[in-house]
UniProtKB/TrEMBL annotation:
PANTHER family referenced in this protein's UniProt entry, alphabetically: PREPHENATE DEHYDRATASE P PROTEIN (PTHR21022), PREPHENATE DEHYDRATASE-RELATED (PTHR21022:SF19)
Site (Essential for prephenate dehydratase activity): T175
Pfam families found in the cross-reference section: PDT (PF00800)
Molecular function GO terms recorded: prephenate dehydratase activity
High-level lineage: Bacteria, Bacillati, Bacillota, Bacilli, Lactobacillales
EC code: 4.2.1.51
PROSITE patterns: ACT, PREPHENATE_DEHYDR_1, PREPHENATE_DEHYDR_2, PREPHENATE_DEHYDR_3
Gene Ontology process terms (BP): L-phenylalanine biosynthetic process
Catalysis: reaction(s): prephenate + H(+) = 3-phenylpyruvate + CO2 + H2O
Full protein name: Prephenate dehydratase
Alphabetical UniProt keywords: Amino-acid biosynthesis, Aromatic amino acid biosynthesis, Lyase, Phenylalanine biosynthesis
Keyword Translocase listed: no
UniProt pathway annotation: Amino-acid biosynthesis; L-phenylalanine biosynthesis; phenylpyruvate from prephenate: step 1/1
Length: 282
């Protein structure tokens, strides 16, 4: 089995992929779009990509591609606690007061802004393509007074010293990762944390009350919506589709709600019905 993931090795997406697929043939891919295109061409069996972080919100690249372009479905979801760490090259450990720059991925920098402002407010923040790339840069530049925000695994990979662990601004920092593929998949040795169904809803006419229609068909049936979000429909300004994540504990009730929504003019795209797995911190 070939499994693509948003790389590189040592990233949080890599950790989520390892937690589910273990020792399968894992293939690091450079961007979310390149990963999702691999599953569309069936070059891999599954891909793992981030969909939402509890601090920074939805990963729009993932959602927009899956809604507009993907024929594959969400087959599972991994929820991974995210612990960010500030690290330096061992050569710099004795000179923390002189750190002049902090490197990391934009999401990691955003998740640690309060900490960085309190401890390193004079250091510039420099964006890298991934947290692992920031760690690699430190390894390759041992005499630079620069720190990185990255994972414990990245620190181990590149022989870096973690000077401040768990620096995320919100203690319960989690990221949702979607497993996307053309075939169903289950992880038998781990209990399922939840069951979810994700749909995209648009309307042929942009009328007042469309959002109310969406909410009402689920509300009176007492169906729990774990997420609802609007995104541009890419037709013209002011037209949107709605992402809806549904607690799928009563599938027959959910099915009736979706049928009613279609009768009210909703156009439904099924993104997937899937189990949710909660993994341990990485």
């Amino acid at each position: 089995m070939k499994v693509g993931y948003l790389g590189p090795k040592g990233s949080f997406t890599h950790a989520a992929t390892l937690s589910f697929f273990k020792k399968n043939n894992l293939i690091a891919l450079p961007t979310i779009i390149s990963a999702l295109k691999k599953i569309e061409t069936k070059s891999v069996d599954y891909v793992v990509v981030p969909i939402e972080n509890s601090i920074e919100g939805t990963v729009n690249q993932t959602l927009d591609f899956v809604y507009h372009h993907s024929k594959a479905k969400v087959q599972g979801e991994i929820i991974l606690p995210i612990n960010q760490n500030l690290m330096v090259h061992p050569n710099s450990s004795a000179h923390l007061e002189k750190i002049k720059a902090i490197k990391s991925h934009p999401q990691a920098l955003a998740q640690t802004q309060q900490f960085l402002d309190e401890r390193f407010n004079l250091a510039t923040q420099e964006v890298t393509a991934s947290t692992t790339e920031a760690a690699k840069w430190l390894h390759d530049h041992p005499n630079e007074l620069v720190a990185a925000v990255a994972s414990l695994e990245a620190a181990k990979m590149y022989g870096l010293d973690i000077i401040y662990p768990n620096i995320q601004d919100v203690e319960n920092n989690q990221t949702r990762f979607w497993i996307i593929g053309h075939e169903n998949i289950t992880k038998k040795e781990t209990s399922i944390f939840n069951k979810r169904r994700s749909i995209g809803v648009s309307f042929t006419e942009n009328k007042p009350g469309n959002l109310h229609k969406v909410l009402s068909v689920f509300s009176w049936r007492e169906i729990d919506l774990t997420k609802i979000e609007s995104r541009p429909l890419r037709t013209q300004l002011g037209e949107y589709f709605f992402l809806i994540d549904i607690q799928n504990e009563s599938p027959s009730l959910v099915e009736m709600a979706i049928l009613e929504l279609e009768q009210l003019g909703g156009v439904i795209k099924e993104l997937g019905t899937y189990p949710v797995y909660l993994e341990k911190a990485f």
